[in-house]
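2024-03-11 09:14:02 INFO worker-7 job=invfold-0412 stage=load source=structure_tokens
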């Protein structure tokens, strides 16, 4: 066999695994069906601005070891994500905090905000939230739910909030202080010069083939490596034989505008149902850019179909049950490790992907020692 590992997918999971394996003297071949490396964190320069081609990416983590790990490959700036939400002609700060509540209800103190939410929650009689709608209502009350959550969530997921798992909304902080930081994590930032460079560094000295689809490649090269690290869709790997898992796809409509500053913030969410996109990203603001032009991307969410890019796994009960069955099939593939957002069918952030890849690499490489 020519390689110890065939790594399918040059995204973050594949790159971390390959980097760790290479460090231990293992020979890897990394393939990706796209024409570039870095998977969904790929950045492309347009008008001298790093454009996050597959959606805005903000690195954040609570774990010092993950922060130190990623800092080996790039220097990070001090960007703090503070999106704003537009609902009809009203503008609110996110995540849900005193700035939001003050604007929503004309109040000032945390006590007033808590009282307002309590009054609204009391009327609802929810004892144990069973879905996203009940979870959101019982955390922030009806006004915030209806203006800032319901429309956005239903556009993003194409499902009624009653049919979605509550963990999705728990991603967002809720605080009773005036603080618009979207994350609670200790470390946060954007790699100076873009994300692609991180993956480039990880893959230095490792053989990479882009424009190479695994399923085609395998036909011609069945025994090229001792083991496969597969970070594509697990259901596709098994030819969808138990049925297809559901994913959400996103269409990015990107334009260059002849103005210096279009919306004054990197992320603006449009939370009403009637606006067809979920958010507009103005990429230069991630790096405090002063270029004369600007680049914006509108995000349109849709159900995934064959031929589209799968971005978000739909981690509801039905899909999770089906995934467990695929995972079980996966355990029978002795020479394959499934990883990443698609291989593990999990709504992972970048820090969690790095952690999972380090864990998989640690376990695998230790076994081989
Ligand atoms: P990917 O990056 O998807 O890499 C998988 C690679 O495998 C792809 O390049 C694909 O082309 C390739 N591949 C698939 N099938 C095959 C095949 N058959 N043959 C060859 N190659 C194949 N995380 C954060 O921490 N902060 C954020 O702000 C954030 N924002 C996000 C916004 C959006 C819109 C999305 C979709 C995700 C966001 N994430 C964010 C999550 C982040 O993108 C992921 O955690 C991370 O990029 C996943 O890495 P991965 O290697 O698992 O997958
Ligand atoms: N969300 C919302 N309103 C907003 C922003 C987010 O209701 O203005 C909900 C929505 O359900 C979304 C979830 O919170 O899917 C998680 O948001 P996040 O910004 O973490 O989503 P991502 O960046 O992963 O798309």
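2024-03-11 09:14:09 INFO worker-7 stage=emit residues=369
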């Amino acid at each position: 066999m020519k390689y110890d590992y065939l790594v399918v997918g040059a995204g973050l999971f594949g790159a971390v695994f390959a980097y760790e394996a290479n460090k231990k003297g293992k020979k890897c071949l990394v393939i990706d069906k796209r024409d570039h490396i870095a998977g969904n964190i790929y950045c492309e320069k347009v008008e001298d601005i790093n454009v996050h081609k597959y959606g805005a990416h903000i690195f954040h983590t609570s774990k010092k070891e993950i922060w130190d790990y990623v800092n080996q490959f790039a220097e990070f700036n001090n960007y703090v994500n503070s999106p704003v939400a537009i609902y009809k002609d009203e503008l609110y700060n996110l995540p849900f905090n005193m700035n939001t509540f003050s604007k929503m209800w004309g109040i000032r103190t945390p006590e007033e905000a808590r009282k307002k939410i309590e009054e609204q929650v009391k009327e609802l009689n929810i004892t144990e939230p069973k879905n996203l709608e009940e979870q959101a209502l019982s955390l922030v009350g009806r006004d915030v739910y209806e203006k800032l959550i319901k429309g956005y969530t239903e556009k993003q997921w194409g499902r009624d909030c009653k049919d979605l798992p509550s963990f999705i909304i728990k991603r967002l902080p809720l605080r009773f202080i005036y603080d618009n930081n979207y994350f609670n994590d200790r470390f946060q930032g954007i790699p100076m010069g873009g994300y692609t460079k991180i993956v480039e560094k990880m893959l230095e000295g490792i053989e990479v083939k882009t424009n190479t689809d695994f399923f085609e490649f395998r036909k011609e090269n069945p025994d090229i490596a001792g083991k496969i690290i597969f970070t594509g869709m697990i259901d596709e790997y098994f030819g969808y034989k138990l049925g297809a898992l559901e994913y959400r796809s996103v269409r990015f409509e990107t334009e260059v505008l002849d103005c210096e500053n279009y919306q004054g913030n990197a992320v603006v969410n449009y939370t009403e149902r009637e606006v067809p996109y979920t958010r507009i990203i103005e990429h230069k603001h991630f790096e405090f850019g002063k270029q004369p032009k600007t680049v914006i991307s509108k995000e349109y969410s849709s159900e995934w179909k064959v031929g589209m890019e799968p971005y978000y796994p739909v981690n509801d009960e039905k899909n999770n049950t089906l995934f467990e069955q695929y995972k079980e099939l996966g355990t029978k593939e002795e020479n394959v490790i499934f990883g990443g957002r698609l291989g593990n069918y999990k709504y992972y952030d970048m820090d969690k992907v790095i952690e999972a890849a380090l864990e998989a690499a640690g376990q695998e490489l230790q076994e081989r020692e």
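2024-03-11 09:14:09 INFO worker-7 stage=report msg="The mean pLDDT is 97."
2024-03-11 09:14:10 INFO worker-7 job finished
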